[in-house]
């Protein structure tokens, strides 16, 4: 459904990604950030699904063509740890947001796992954004302080998550509320990465569909 494109970062460098356009020409935009596996077919599928829901969706390719197999967590961790999160957020992700905003459209940001953490960083650093939806990712506080979040956020977390643990989620929610920030936070009795239908060991269809409905409703409310 979508296509591979090249877009400009604010610094003028080229970045690549996968773009799926909505049927209507004046659709709002959503930047979709990958899990630590890379720009997988599953993430492209999420872009296609956003397009069917009425959004232009662009997933920047943070690993520049490399996709890690689902079983290889060591390789995924190595790729993720090689990223410069400030650069990728303020340049690559912001470039994607600027691309979607070029016709005056409102733009949201969403992401999964690694991408969920990037969504929170982006909420503090990317002025083109209007709203964000986080899926089971929280960055270190030195990368993004809740007090610096500039847009309304919705967040989806799993109660059986050993990365974004329930304690970490509680602390994040508390810090957001203490800073007076707008957050809708949902918890699911599911495992980390429960939205990813390609990973049957963790996928929870009921929780995934509930989260998807909430996310698209939130974006429609804030992006139009």
UniProtKB/TrEMBL annotation:
Source organism, top-level taxon: Bacteria
InterPro entries, alphabetized: AB_hydrolase_fold (IPR029058), Dienelactn_hydro (IPR002925), Dienelactone_hydrolase-like (IPR051049)
Domain Dienelactone hydrolase: 17-222
Gene3D superfamilies in the record: alpha/beta hydrolase (3.40.50.1820)
Entries under SUPFAM superfamilies matching the protein: alpha/beta-Hydrolases (SSF53474)
GO molecular function terms listed in the Swiss-Prot or TrEMBL record: hydrolase activity
Regions annotated as coiled coil: none
Keywords: Hydrolase
Pfam family, any one: DLH
Protein's recorded name: Dienelactone hydrolase family protein
Originating species: Bradyrhizobium sediminis
């Amino acid at each position: 459904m979508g296509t591979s494109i090249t877009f400009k970062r604010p610094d003028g460098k080229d970045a690549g990604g996968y773009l799926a356009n909505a049927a209507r020409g004046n659709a709002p935009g959503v930047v979709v950030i990958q899990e630590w596996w890379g720009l997988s077919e599953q993430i492209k599928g999420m872009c296609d699904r956003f397009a069917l829901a009425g959004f232009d969706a662009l997933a920047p390719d943070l690993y520049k063509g490399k996709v890690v197999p689902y079983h290889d967590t060591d390789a995924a961790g190595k790729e993720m740890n090689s990223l410069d999160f400030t650069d990728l957020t303020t340049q690559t992700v912001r470039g994607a947001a600027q691309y979607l905003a070029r016709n005056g459209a409102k733009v949201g940001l969403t992401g999964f796992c690694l991408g969920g953490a990037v969504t929170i960083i982006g909420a503090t650093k990317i002025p083109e954004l209007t709203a964000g939806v986080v899926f089971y990712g929280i960055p270190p506080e030195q990368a993004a302080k809740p007090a610096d979040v500039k847009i309304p956020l919705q967040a989806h977390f799993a109660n059986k998550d050993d990365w974004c643990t329930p304690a970490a989620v509680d602390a994040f929610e508390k810090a957001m509320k203490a800073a007076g920030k707008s957050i809708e936070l949902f918890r699911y009795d599911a495992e980390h990465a429960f939205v990813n239908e390609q990973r049957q060991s963790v996928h929870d269809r009921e929780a995934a569909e509930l989260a998807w409905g909430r996310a698209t409703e939130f974006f429609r409310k804030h992006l139009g």
